[in-house]
Records
---
Amino acid sequence: MSLLLCLTTCPDPDSAGRLARALVEERLAACVSVLPGLQSTYRWQGALEQTSECLLLIKTAHARYPALQARLVELHPYELPELVAVESSSALPAYLQWVAAATAPQE
């Protein structure tokens, strides 16, 4: 099983919590960790922006990524949400089994 660690940001803890709950409830993620207090600096539509955000660390199976990506775009409050997926080169075998079970579609 291939594990992905996906990163996205949200503008506030409430939207981050809603997104995290939806992804786990829909079995698109095994776990979502929300880290508040992030300061982001970026250029958007020609202007330099500085914003407080929450970082979400989304753990999922590689096979669930297309569905996770589509759902995140539907639910995310940003016009252009960040979604970066990093493939894990190693992880505890028991953790990989748990992620696979937690993200397996229900029949």
---
Amino acid sequence: MGTVITPQLVDTVDTFTGVRSYSSGGTRHLTTCQVERWGLRMECPTPEDPFSDGEVTWLLPDLGLRLTHLRSRSRHGRPTPSTLTAVRVQRDSRSWRTTDLLLGLAVPGGTTARIVRSEEFAAAVAGRVLRPGDADLALRTVHRTLEEISHFRHDLNAWLNHLDIFDVWPPL
């Protein structure tokens, strides 16, 4: 079975109302929507997900990255890896718009980060869903980030501290 080509995912966060709108037409009310000096911090519940209770997302526009962690519904559930996804971010005084570049890193913590979504990325490039400039940006962003994180033994907090982001990841 071949890889299904997904349309490019675009979402917009209205920082005044705390609503995240998806290109699919869905919306989600954020419990946290806070502009920080390093980017945008968001949290929301995920009632439709049987395994996770909530999602924490940080947008790091200067790095072209979205950092995401799903909180397990069960205290005894296996922790999911954090994901760094290459994104293009456009922002103004009211909203932040991200375009998912369909390539990222899974960073499990304690073990080596790995590139994820490469089949979806390749299918999007082949199907011309992803423009060549965006594909190049995604590859450069993910490989640069993987190299940087490897210098910190794949420890996201150490890497974030190096970037002068001293908030703990993932937040409790």
---
Amino acid sequence: MSAPEPTITAGEYIIHHLTQWTSGPRAGVVDFHIVDIDSLIMTVLLGALACFVLWRVARSMTSGVPGRLQAAVEFLVEFVDEQARGIVRNAKSREFVTPLAFISFIWIVLMNMMDLLPVDLLPRLWEGAAAATGHDPQHAYLRVVATADLSVALGMSITVLLLSLYYGVRVKGLGGWLHELFTAPFGNHPLLWPLNFGMQLLEYLAKTLSHGMRLFGNLYAEEILFMIIALMGAAGLGSLSGWALFFGNIAAGLAWSIFSMLIIVLQGFIFMMLTLVYIGQAHDHH
């Protein structure tokens, strides 16, 4: 794992790595006029890669003994389909929801796996490209873990919310969905309508925020820890007595990379399962 330049402080190093390549300066914490260009590029590239690999597997499928990749894809398809059957009872809805859950799992895992690359690898290459084209490399920002970007994580969870609302209206009808919105969970007495409506809004908000924040928080913390490990190696190279710290950096980086593989898959699985659960709940009548 590469070490940062000795001319900058640890805080500056971390801040530089956590700064997004954006379409312009932000006016605040939430600014819908700004696009995180690096996250957009990584999500599109990895989504295209996932679709291309799955397309190649589908084209080369055989009825005999499958290869390792085909066997892995078949296992994942069967696993997701089994989970969807147990959660989303409507067979017509599963025709769309099951592939959605499957590709979301693959997509999130691929985005999470970018955290296993050396911390400085792609950002340094991007800085070199900026310098070669006459731009200031100190202001050439690139974050490669798109799921550590809150806008990406919440964007996906809001998409799941919109799908839940769509299927709720589609299955129950607009009148039935509105009736449930004002009469569940406490009953259909008119005095309870405001309380029921408030509880329903709070439930939708809590599910959406927790869905996205869980993915973002875990990957953001993982990204920070990799940066700290990189700084640990840099401190070790600064003195002869620090070589033990440098080798500790290697051991810590290896151990955390192995543990991160579990986090990478687990977070994709949790997001996929919650997608099925929330859309499945939209089909239930209260």
---
Amino acid sequence: MEETISNEAIEWFSKLHSGDAVPEDFVHFEEWRQLNPSHAEAYADVERFWAWLDTPAKRVFEREDAQSAASAQITALTRKPALSAPRFAGGRTRRRALAGFSLAAAVLMFTCLPGFFHFWNSDYHTGWGERRELVTEDGSRITLNTHSAISVAFSSQQRVIKLSEGEAYFQVAHNSARPFLVVTDYGVTQVTGTAFDVYKQSGQMTVTVSEGKVKVYREGARGQAIELTAGLQTTLNMYGAGPVLHTDARQVSAWKNGLLVFNQQSLASVVTELNRYFPGKIMIADPRIRQRIVSGAFDLAYPQDILSALEKNLELRSLSISRALTMLYQPGF
């Protein structure tokens, strides 16, 4: 009964703050609230919950503003590509939030709006849960992972891809006279012909090599380039490069085959990865479960089933608060 009343309170709060509520809704809500003291108490709990999350919501906005300002300083690529594949519009992001609802609005700002501007300026992009393969004029293949965006600028001297959002796997046609560069806000990956994965995430880029070798360096610091060969991985951020690690490149790029693979990873890192495939955002409601260990291989065609599997195997529960937000928690905490 307590869980039912709590869910009703959440539904009322969402409805009254959605921007679609009519006067009759407020009348019916007041009737429900006065029907039982537990109703009023449950609704007050929901209001306190959102007030508690107001500060994190503001931090999200501030962080996104700072990142947008930094991105504006990146030199834009001027030439556009001639690709064998047609230009595509990609998927639609969900922007319908609960009006005046600070956290839900922040969630959408964090997960949708920054990417939207990247997509608007891109040549090719994918929607939530979508994968696309492109073939460039030189015969190279680019596979875009979910919610990713690239711009292409090929010239007679070099082949440049700007990865502005998400992840892409590159199978580069060899041409020693015309280097192939993948550029992000955090660095450059340069090759003449090989296969590798580049993932731009919050605050850094990760490069994983499947075949051949690549050079990775901060823009303007080519003399300090790190050379990676098959099975090696490194990260770059605004401060420099991280350590070079041995990794299973097949596992990293398993998404190309529709799989998401985790091997002894924390629940926090798993949820971060899952958020790339959900149109809303999953949040861990209690920090005490963030380090729970997860291993498994999951079918990306059914991301909701992955969440269900986590609930079942880790004895967790999820609560959806509008389409923009799902809270993951452990009963009794």
